[in-house]
Amino acid sequence: MLGYAAMARVSSALIVSHAFAAFGCQGAGPGGPPGVKVKIEVARIANIPDSSEYVATLKSRASSAIRPEVEGKITQIFVRPGERVAAGTPLVQIDPAKQQATLKSQQDTLAAKRASVEYARQQHERVSGLAASGIASQQDLDQAKASLDAAQAELAALDAQVREQQVQLHYYSVAAPTAGIVGDIPARVGDRVTAETTLTTIDQPGGLEAYVSVPVERAPQLRLGLPVQIVDGSGAVLAETQITFVSPQVDEATQTVLAKASMGEGVGLRPAQFIRARLVWGTHEGPVVPVLAVSRISGRYFAFVAEEDKGALVARQKPLRLGEIVGSEYLVLEGIKPGDRLIVSGTQFLIDGAPVTPET
């Protein structure tokens, strides 16, 4: 079998032989070698966007993390992930048995204390009558009044405790704080949860924000209203928006500055999704070349340019440094000047210095 280098030499030889065969097919020009018929376009100037792409995270501006207010075991889950719910819809039930027992005990104590207050009131009225008749002393009356006041104070404290326990019991039924769509529910019936456990999320439709972390070197160029394009893997623009918030602080760990861009409910975009955000810093003029005019050899890019040489046109191979693709054209950073005559067809038959003839 032929080695890689030998195969490369054979391939080059075939290309050259094809090229000269093509020359022969065209016939010799007057006073010079034959030329390959090629299509030529003049390199044109275009407004080139000065942009940078960063990985961003989509977050909902109306997303609520649902956590319980109390600790306990889940006894029932009323909803499914993805279900739309109204505000106040029960989501999860936590076992309230212990809390109910505590509340019942305090309610019984409250009832007993009410009886004590009623007895203290009757005793105070009795002593007041005796004191008015001169039978009971002022000290007896003061003691009866103090006992009544103490009993009433204890009753008020117990009543407050009962109300607190009733509110606490309400927390054992977890409800949706707003209308929206139920997110994932990682908890299961029988799981023990605490106030730190996330039961699920409630997301309101629409209202997404792209969180973009921009390197601190670019931070001076960040500004409100800066255009932002959300693009897919191929570079196609999915949505266009602008910067609505720039953090005044730098993240110490990543040395980046947080910027946010508000967006609507994009097609196929979801909260917590990683996306590509293209920040457009500005535009400048520069040459562009058709994608079909560019060839790639050993990881480097080249294009053929038709140049005058002793009264004839010849193909000159130019190394290129390219930017991104815009439509069907490459942005040229280096290698092509505006006005250069680009060869956009027949390049497979060309070598550097080969004569060419423009197609009419």
What do these coordinates show?
- This protein is of the alpha+beta class and 360 residues long.
- It folds into 3 domains: 4-48 and 285-358, conserved putative lor/sdh protein from methanococcus maripaludis s2 fold, CATH 2.40.420.20; 52-63 and 204-282, Efflux pump adaptor protein, beta barrel domain (Elongation Factor Tu (Ef-tu), domain 3); 67-201, OB fold (Dihydrolipoamide Acetyltransferase, E2P) (Beta Barrel), CATH 2.40.50.
- The protein has 3 helices and 22 strands.
- The longest helix has 36 residues, at 97-132.
- Mean pLDDT is 84; it is low at 1-30.
CATH architecture of the largest domain: Beta Barrel
Radius of gyration: 41 Å
The span between the termini is 45 Å
Low-confidence stretches: 1-30
Give the spatial strand order of the biggest sheet. Answer: 3-12-15-14-13-16
Whole-number count of domains: 3
Structural class designation: alpha+beta
Give the fraction of residues assigned to helices. Answer: 25-40%
The CATH superfamily of the largest domain turns out to be: RNA polymerase II/Efflux pump adaptor protein, barrel-sandwich hybrid domain
Q: Could you report the average pLDDT, rounded to the nearest whole number? A: 84
Element order, helices and strands? HEEEEEEEHHEEEEEEEEEEEEEEE
Sheet having the most strands? 6 strands, antiparallel, barrel
